[in-house]
Design brief:
Length: 232
């Protein structure tokens, strides 16, 4: 029998992270000394006013960008010491992104969009299409595999985007206002889906403006001016 005590493993860690964007003479400190730990299987919501650094934070934990100052660790490995290629490989295998704007390729079918991250990993065509179809079926989009984004509703597009994030079977899902462009009923379905993904053991970080969505997460964090102002 398994021990009742859950062994907690830190999957993501930010240590005094600063991110400064420079545009000409203007400097913006988007993150100002932010520290946090995310444990395996955590379900964390991030709230905060527009401009508080939420998307910048997701870019850091998702290895899309590196901090100006401070340290980011994924599975105990420091991101700054990796080459761009190493970072891309880790991102591609460990992390799935879901954005508010679905970021689907308009000229590709649902199946081709979902298969894209697998193509980037070098998975052969037949295998990646089989995987992509299985993920689409799982996510309730089995009847739409050959539709292009323009032929799908907003909720269906977001499902395809989630399927694409899941295609590589990542342990971590990062969602940046995933329901921001959806009506509340469709948004609810997407949130149910995130719950399911957490139930099956994935670590979820969701940025949201919606208090109800934030309440569904097990842990909550609030940002203001690039700093954590509350945790619960
Ligand atoms: N690529 C960028 N270049 C310059 N400034 C940026 C860039 N991305 C974000 N910012 C600025 O950093 C701050 C935080 O932005 P962001 O992380 O997008 O906040 P949020 O997602 O909470 O709305 C804002 O002031 C924003 O204007
Ligand atoms: Mg944002």
């Amino acid at each position: 029998m398994k021990s009742a005590k859950k062994k907690e493993k830190v999957v993501l860690e930010l240590n005094d992270v600063w991110k400064t964007y420079t545009m000409g003479e203007v400097r913006v400190d988007a993150l100002r000394g932010l520290s946090m730990k995310v444990m395996e299987r955590d379900y964390l919501s991030v709230m905060g006013p527009s401009g508080s650094g939420k998307s910048t934070l997701l870019h850091m934990v998702g290895l899309l960008d590196v901090p100006t100052k401070g340290k980011v660790f994924i599975d105990g490995e420091q991101v700054k010491t990796m080459s761009d290629d190493e970072r891309a490989v880790i991102r591609s295998h460990k992390i799935g992104f879901v954005f508010q704007v679905f970021n689907l390729v308009p000229s590709l079918t649902a199946l081709e969009n979902v298969a894209l991250p697998l193509m980037i990993q070098g998975v052969p065509r037949a295998e990646r299409e089989k995987k992509a179809e299985a993920v689409l079926v799982r996510i309730g989009m089995g009847a739409r595999v050959h539709h292009k984004p323009a032929e799908l509703s907003g909720g269906e597009r977001q499902r395809v985007a989630i399927a694409r994030a899941l295609a590589t079977d990542p342990a971590i899902i990062l969602a940046d206002e995933p329901t921001g462009n959806l009506d509340s009923k469709t948004g609810q379905e997407i949130i149910d889906l995130l719950d399911e993904l957490n139930d099956e053991g994935r670590t979820i970080i969701v940025v949201t403006h919606d208090k109800e969505i934030a309440a569904r997460a097990e842990k909550r964090m609030r940002l203001k001016d690039g700093q954590v102002i509350s945790k619960s």
